[in-house]
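COURSE: Structural Biology Practicum
ASSIGNMENT: Worksheet 4, Part C
STUDENT ID: 0417
INSTRUCTIONS: Below are two proteins. For each, the amino acid sequence is given first, followed by its structure token string. Answer the questions at the end about the second protein only.

PROTEIN I
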Amino acid sequence: MSSGTHQVVVVRETGGIDSLQLETQVIPLPGPGEAQIRHRAIGLNFIDTYFRTGLYKAPSLPFTPGAEGAGVVTAVGEGVDDLQVGDRVAYAGASLGAYSEYRLIPADRLVPLPDDISDEVAAAALLKGLTAEYLLRRTFQVRGGETILVHAGAGGVGSLLCQWGKHLGATVIATVGSEAKARLARQYGASEVILYRKESVSARVRELTGGAGVPVVYDSVGADTFMDSLDC
């Protein structure tokens, strides 16, 4: 069981990047049903900025941002039987607190990591991967032969949607904002890429699909793209 102190990023007042403060705190000890983990990698997500700026309300102030990470179990609390000290684990979508060397987390929120998945890959991909799985397999079950539209195809979730969509046998059309991002989207599996600053997305989609349009649009942008997405 690790004791002593560790480094933690703390937000005591919401705002800009300067609101992130590095502090030294006592390493917390696990309670019943909890595990103490030592982070080896954490995921950085855009939603972290929402909590930092106050756009999303954190449970309380002060708080430590971050909801995704990977590391090693260093202690377990009473009633935790499925984990052992030394186990490699990852988590996503849990309570805030990933911007730290150590943290406590409910043991049932931890996923064991196989040897062939690095801490860095797990921390970077788990939250986005769960999002992609939900979108491709649950909100709309993509099937081979279908054509799908992915906005922000070079972004975190978008890049996984392109890869996974292609793996499922779909034709992927991606939108991006620059030639550099267009090259990335093609590498990720997009068959066609639309530069939304230079052409109408809906008109180009209709052209590419022979007027049929697409059965699903994955739109992570929102207000700026919503109405055009409905015409795709």
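PROTEIN II
(use this one for the questions)
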Amino acid sequence: MTFIERALTGGRPDSIEDDVLLPRRQDYHHSPVDWRDEVLYFLLVDRFSDGLEKDRKLLDRSKLKAARPDIKGQPWSWQLWAESGGSRWQGGSLKGILSKLGYLKSLGITALWLSPVFRQRSHEDSYHGYGVQDFLEVDPRFGSRRDLTELVAAAHKAGLRIILDIIFNHSGCNWLYPQDTPGGIYEAAYTLDRYPFGSWRGIDGRPVQAISGCDDAVWPQELQDRERYTRAGSGDLGAGSIEEAWAEHKRSDFKSLRDFNLDSPGLLSDLARCYKYWIALTDCDGFRIDTLKHISFEQGRNFCGSIKEFAANLGKENFFLVGEIAGGDWAANRYLEALGRNLNAALDIGEMRQVLAGVAKGLAHPGAYFRGFSSDVALGSHRNLGNQHVSVLDDHDHVLGEKIRFSAYAASEAQVVAGVAMQLFTLGIPCIYYGTEQALAGPEDEERKWLPDWKASDRYLREAMFGPMHPRPGGVNSLDEQEDESMPGFGPFGTVGHHCFDPSFPIYRNIAAMAELRRAFPALRHGRQYLRQTALLEDGLEKFDFYGAGYEVARTAVLMCWWMRS
């Protein structure tokens, strides 16, 4: 039995010293030479697929009201649909993703970025995955470590890569502050000092006197040292300069999530070992690093450097590390500069995402987007910048701007295609958000007035493509593979019981055709980029030139003109 098989057959390690760094394969999947050759696809595991779409009908978009039945004898409720989307697990799984590899490959995708798969607190409805309770285990609502390993292997066989989403800034809400703490036991008021430790939490979230099993507290054991948390309460996540190692936004809990004290001796190394375990075990190809802005430059550089070195020793010499850096484009560029070669790229989730959307909809001048790749920034030539930015049109947060998908108010399907064309045919590594190819947009405009917090809640960025009839129950009961029949599932376009994996949909077909064009011409991936008026079209829009390496020239005309009809 190989070590990998033995690791998957036995239980997960309790400690990162328990043979954690020993998983080894004879061969590991090599990294791409240049990540600009890839087309990324970001999905929320809980909201993508449960693998059971064959048991549901494809959604007929002309008959949406027919897919909104009575629930438990009660008329359709937008309040319940919204509540389901914001606070319940819907049932997506790793096996579901495995069942859709063909769908994704045909779309032109070459790398999948998965939302965090690590174990969450049993009683929490943190379907998004960012409140980790066990850093060495897969959440059972998603599947198992074997499911994840098999997904990576199948993806590699299909010519796809897998990027895991990781967090080393904080853990889940695995312990409570003392009862008399200002602000309360969950989100204490911020302090420049340190609060006393309250108590660990048990399987149901209540305080426990002692840790009695894997559902209590936090794992691995090394993270159960109380001094490894800042215990500073929840402060202003934008306060202080990113240059300050101990700024408020770096010491603060992320709301109720518990901030790690990365100055604690050995903690950064222990967290790095947790994630090295996943590289060695699963053979994944990269990490998206959550909340990197809340980590100091030195800590980020050391962590990323350690991961890079470990991966290189396995033959993954260009293991992909991309940072989520809120705070605008300047902050992202500053982290790229400070971390240097230890960080491949930053996600364009700040102003660049908003400008890209505006240009695609004709609401902003193209120059506003192209200036984001200016050659006079500290990072050097704009040609090199293309390898350091992941282009984003939509994501699960929208940290700036309204929290609705690009498609929600697109004038036409062609406008959605134009937005993705901007990603595929300009500098950067394109990342398509799940459901863009099906124009996920929430319910019809006339129904949106009934939705609580429309445009202000990230739930509307997170519809379940597979169309669950009902969500899982709340709390600990979500671990059971049953449905809460009193609530509707958070299906696409405000429906239930119908999926929208439609490879014949025009936007899907156009994205697939554009991805193939991008693959065929290296200039579209590696070339220099210039915005230059060469002619004035009848509709008043400009052309621009895109010059590639050597003598190859790719000229990309007005993106709004790209549209393939069935």
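ANSWER KEY EXCERPT:
Q1: The chain has a mean pLDDT of 92.
Q2: The chain has one domain: 3-169+261-527.
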